[in-house]
Fold these 2 entries.
Entry 1:
Amino acid sequence: MNATKTADPFRLRPPWSGTLTARERFVRQMRHQPVDRCFNMEFGYWNENFQTWPMFRDHGIRSNEEADVALGFDPFPAVWPLWIHPGFPEGVVEDRGATRIVRNRDGLLAEVPRDGHDTIPHFVGSSIVTPEDWAEVKAERFRRDDPARRVDVAALKARHPDDRDYPLHVHCGSMIGKVRDLLTFEGLTYATADYPDMVEDMVETMCVLIEDFLDQVLPAVRFDGASGWEDICFRSGPLITLGFFRQVVVPRYRRIGAKLRAHGVDLWYTDCDGDVRPLIPGFLEAGINTLFPFEVSCSGHPGEVLRRYGPDLRILGGVDKHALIAGPEAIRAYLESVAPLVEAGGFIPFCDHRCPPDVAQENYLYYLDLKHCMFG
Amino acid sequence: MSERNQELYDAIIRGDRKTVQAEVEKAIADKRPVVDLMNGSMIPAMREIGARFARNEAYVPEMLIAARAMQTGLNLIEPLLAEAGHEPRARVCLGTVKGDLHDIGKNLVGMMLKGAGFAVDDLGVDCDVAKFEAGVGRGANAVLCSALLTTTMPYMKTVVEHFKGQGVKVIIGGAPVTQKYAEEIGADGYGADANAAVSAVETVLGLV
């Protein structure tokens, strides 16, 4: 498709046609039941794509939410809990010439390029190092009785009625990824060795806050699935020890999973980059049965993992971004390799992370066209 | 291996830096040869954690806390090694390439190399060719380049081309980097992870 201006600047492509609602389609596909066509979604794009890809830049599309609408993707919203509140004051704390040191909402200090180009943050310090630091932050920013943690259930129900036509997820936060966000990766690793009780209390705090949230929203709204976020793996595997994961994290997932299942929510994905394979048994044991976005260069071809674990496991994502970088031939070969997985159900293909700016726009459009042609 | 060395060895593997410190201080007080301490306990312990990593029995956190424990011991014995005229196995410099500020992987590679008996000149992040050149000027036999992003990875080619024909080995690694990419740009070696980076250095410098 040419990215020419259309009458509706936010509608570059129409939604794929179909006979089911997006909600019916998503749920049926994840349950390995027949569908009219594949659920059509993408994870999103780096900020730089919005400046460099003409179809975004020339149509004033500046965010992933706008891109989802413009490209006609099926809706995929979630209801989110409140996490840190109040957040740490954000801002620049030091100017180092080519870079700046900034403090984020989580209290982490990050070195960022002064020119503002898009990059993964480079964290250089944390507001929490010792148990005393944590006690202070917990008392101030993770209060269970914080009135801001009360959900306006009536408004939520009105916004997401039971007869809606799109799938709705309840976000179950993060048990350890956000703890890592408070400590940095090295900080978490060293704290797990030096202050294991502190780290366990941090995980417990995350769990209790999510339980409080779920107790409010689950009885009120009929959710189609649960979501989560961890990002606790490198390319070479987990960035927490498997012992800590099994002894401290998995039992908290299990508590959350029990609440979800009690309200009929049995599809649960968590967002985790890197090589997630060592964590899959723990995920499945606790009820997390869907991987997202499944980075192929780290975790291998999605077919291998799905074959190993069978229909209990599902994957959202799993399209190798390197194929999108390489061009049409690689894109076609890759999509053909996942076609049997789409056919079998429990697998919704999309780029295995935010699409990076080194994917050419024409490659990306070729990919979307081919995906439509093969699975639409 | 003596029993006392076994305690040090075990302490490094489980990342117990307090025991490492106590054991090394005791060995120094007992006037035991620190080279034996390093070659008999510390380097083998890091080799073992690397082997466990290669077998997927340990992951980056275990390597990191083991390397921190090892470093605690190294800090105590390094002055004594220098006094005794001990030479490292080789000298290397490493840095994250220009445009990239990420250093977790680079730092871990540095710690694993020290744990394997190499002298490591850490050039930091955002390294251009001039920084790597300076490292070579200080005696590095090999240059190690790290990158986290597909957008910064191409600078590795610039580094490889710069050192071509100079007798300096260039080894690359990082999340988006592959063996195929290393071959494409003509790098001398590739490390898929921190443990593999040590093996790559040993291979390209003919130390195995």
Entry 2:
Amino acid sequence: MSILSVENISKTFGGLKALMSVSFSVKQGEIYGIIGPNGSGKTTLINCITGFIKPESGKVYFQGSNIQGWPAHKIARAGIARTFQVMRPYYSLPAYKNLIIPLWSPRARAIGGWRGGGKHGDRDTVAVDILEEIGFERDSRVPYKLASTLPTGYLKRLELARCIALRPEIIFCDEVFSGLSASEVAGMLPLIEKLKMEGITLIMVEHRLKELFKVADRVMALQFGEKIAEGHYKEVIADPRVKEAYLGSEEV
Amino acid sequence: MEVRRKERIDRGIKVRSEGIYVVSSLKEMLYVAGPRLFLIVGLLLLPLVLEMAPYWKRVVNIMCVYGLLAISFDFLANIVGLVCLGGAMFIGVGGYMTAIFNVYLHCPVYLAIPLAGLSGAFICTILLLPCLSLRGVYFAIVTLMYPLLFTRIIEALNILGGTNGITGLDSFPNPYLENYVIIILLLVFMFGLRRLVDEDIGLVLRGIKDNDQSVRASGINVTHLKALAVFIASFIGCLGGAYLAHLYMWAGLSLFALDFSIIPIAAVTIGGGGSMMGAVLGTFILVPLSEFLRFFGTFRIVIYCLILTGFIVFKSEGLLTYFARKYDQFERWAKI
């Protein structure tokens, strides 16, 4: 049963073909990886699916209905959350107040915050609960610090926390591991697994292949806006076109 | 050489009066409520103190109208992130709406002003709706253009009294009412907006200023919220305009004067943005100052500009921010 299926998405920026008829589908509760070299259209694909840019053609079916063409907030309200590659926290607010905004959103208010809390006045507590879940030390001052003073590791977690607070069906993670040290990434992997256990479908765009392959059920490879391979990660990295995309072809 | 640096430390009483335990001590309650009480009581006593100076009572009224414009600007610019130069538009639309209700439709004053506020806010929001999805300077430009548009339309089509304006608006039944209507409006909206900003919806509005893409990714319709914020701000401005029209008993083209757009911005710059109280403090300095400077004739603009520049250069954080810091913290030299 696929929760999201993307059919023939195409997008051009001027003369540049960023996406050429990309199709894929993701099953409920799966971790789906999207890999590809720089400029292969990974982030554009996320932007097209989540409504931040409009593709020229193609359809996106989420839980059976075509959401292509919906405004971004409506897609998020339907249950598709996303992180941003360039982190976009609310820098002028303390970390836990960053989560009040998704917790206040119509979706989170309708179905209740993290584990049912936060329907009414106790959003602050729920926000700190989520931050604790995602690796902020509850009894430290970290959750109460201004987002602008937090280091990258925490900000990446905060991006994810903001998605979780929305109570989504799907989270698009746009390079949540980039800029983190190996030990920080190792600390985040159990979290990814935990979200999967909660029944959330994750679609992860990633450059850190080794870490991604530890959690991903299936992987798709993109190059120059085209899908060149899909399947278990072992099949994908064995594919000659993927090797060529990452390492370059022999005859230059 | 010994190196020293200034460090700022919260006063003990500030730390003690954070949170609910403040109610256990009168002194700490006074510490928290003092500045607010000073403002409220001071403002309410002002018309009584100025009993012998009716001219200055009038200045207080106009000062409060500018105060309303300043909090509306502060709210839009420093909370929601929409730089709105539409003070003149709000005043003009509010003034003309109340004239229509009062003169043409014979509504009494106490009905005409709120009706003008609501309908004016509705008109302003509809007019600004197309540019809400724009970011950056576009919104500011459009809000600056509308007052010019209105004056030219009224002039060219000779509607709503043309260049003579609409005369014969009802005045307030007595001078005290005239004073207290606007003072209470100002206090209510100032504390009301501060309360709104501290609520969860206020956080969302601040989020829009910080980062509207993330708000959108949280499933919140940013344009709706911006429209709501513009409605609130223009409602406040239009009420000020309606009041002013009844004060002058006339609604004319000078209600669209650029002063109504510029002085609130200057006031927020002087007082400090984001707190609403800073905006009010700024107008309470600027408006009486410009009255004092009348003594200098046309030269007053020069002095006015110099004072304004001085504030911006030497206290760019805003006076309220400065005072609040002195009130809550002390400074000392520390060796490093």
